[in-house]
Amino acid sequence: MPSFDIVSETDLQEVDNAVNQVSKEIITRYDFKNAKCRVERKEAEITLHADDEYKREQVIEILKEKLIRRKVDIRVLDYGTVEPASGGTVRQVVTVRQGIEAELAKKLVKMIKDSKIKVQAAIQGVELRITGKKRDDLQEVITLLKADTSIEQPLQFTNFRD
Question: Whose CA is closest to 73, among 154, 156, 157?
Answer without folding.
Answer: 154
